[in-house]
Write a structure and sequence with these properties.
Elements (H helix, E strand, L loop, with lengths): L6 E6 L8 E5 L2 E7 L5 E5 L13 E3 L2 E3 L6 E2 L5 E3 L14 E2 L1 E4 L2 E5 L23 E2 L3 E5 L3 H8 L5 H4 L15 E5 L2 E11 L15 E10 L3 E10 L14 E13 L2 E10 L6 H30 L12 H20 L1
Antiparallel strand pairs: 1-11, 2-3, 3-4, 4-9, 5-6, 6-7, 7-8, 10-11, 12-19, 13-19, 14-15, 15-16, 16-17, 17-18, 18-19
């Protein structure tokens, strides 16, 4: 089951053009394209006659002509032409999904269109700040349920074992974390003091020596994660302490779009408070993040397979408190939504 009255990332903005693109979200087949004025459109990808995918048809102006018998649909999903007969069948219509372009992505509302409110799309602080650098949006397809990815993105402890050559700092595996909940989700975080910066971040930090470091792992219902890393000179880090001029901040946004129960599109975007115009830094971070996410992908896909085919009971550890809380609250939201329909 999925939460439907919410926004999901359908695709990166540069993936949608004047070609008919077929995508699947929450098990629903969707055709998505751009109108002549550039605005995105998303319709049910099935002609109501014999269910030929409209993505196999022809885009003419802003309308789609079915490739079987020419039934033609406008951007609202209304049939505006039935070439083989004089009368347009009153039931010749397809579902139209609200779509919005923001933060380099095209977002789609999978629930009741009357409840789609643009302001519910997550706000990305500093997106337009010229002093912040950012990398281009990117996507991976993961053969696992999206909630296993949420589990991973709420878990600061897995880093030592999965990301040995990129994100590990020695002596931090037993440093405790704290959980804070809020209306939209929860945060798992921990400050680590007087530590060596991990290899991935070391070239980006603009001070020498050890650091105080914050790991901020945030998840928002149903499937958005915000991972923030803060590095500041030793003695200057900690809750509520002001940032120094040379404090380095990196924020990664992960947008997990369920294709179905077993497949997820993992979209991400990253920004930082340094090197706003450096193509070299952008490429280095982009390459490094993809390597890190592929390491996560390999493990989480194996977890999905292991849990789906388990022959003995699995156990939970203390570090699972956050992910388990997230799953319970999300299940409650999904059940409430189902009861309303």
């Amino acid at each position: 089951m999925f939460l439907r009255n919410t926004w999901y990332v359908a695709a990166s903005h540069n993936e949608i053009d004047r070609n008919l693109k077929s995508i699947t979200i929450l098990g629903e087949k969707i055709v998505i394209y751009r109108r002549e004025d550039g605005l995105p459109v998303a319709l049910e990808d099935a002609c109501p006659h014999r269910k030929l995918p409209l993505s196999k048809g022809l885009l003419t102006g802003d309308t789609i002509e079915c490739g079987y018998h020419g039934l033609t649909f406008d951007c609202t999903g209304t049939c505006v032409k039935a070439p083989t007969q004089d009368r347009i069948p009153p039931t010749a219509k397809v579902h139209s999904y609200p779509v919005v372009e923001r933060w380099g992505f095209v977002w789609i509302w999978m629930g009741n269109p009357n409840r789609a409110v643009e302001k519910k799309i997550i706000h990305i602080e500093n997106y337009d700040n010229p002093s912040w650098g950012k990398i281009a949006t990117s996507t991976l397809t993961c053969d696992c349920n999206y909630l296993y990815l949420v589990d991973n993105l709420l878990d600061p402890f897995h880093v030592k074992w999965i990301h040995r050559t990129s994100l590990v700092s020695e002596g931090v595996d037993n440093i405790s974390s704290k959980m804070n909940t809020f209306n939209d989700g929860l945060i798992i975080s921990r400050w680590m003091y007087n530590q060596d910066p991990p290899p991935f971040y070391a070239p980006l930090i603009q001070f020498d020596g050890k650091c105080d470091r914050l790991q901020h792992y945030e998840a928002r219902y149903p499937s958005i994660a915000v991972n923030k890393s803060i590095f500041t000179p030793v003695g200057t880090g900690g809750p509520d302490k002001p940032y120094q001029d040379n404090t380095f901040i990196s924020v990664s946004y992960s947008f997990l779009t369920p294709v179905d129960e077993n497949t997820t599109h993992y979209h991400w975007f990253q920004q930082r408070n340094s090197d706003p115009d450096s193509k070299e830094v952008n490429q280095s971070i982009s390459d490094g993040l993809r390597k890190i996410f592929i390491e996560d992908k390999d493990v989480v896909e194996a977890v999905h397979n292991g849990m789906a085919n388990k022959t003995t009971q699995n156990i939970d550890l203390g570090l699972d408190a956050g992910p388990l809380y997230f799953r319970r609250e999300l299940e409650r939201m999904i059940n409430a939504e189902h009861d309303e329909s």
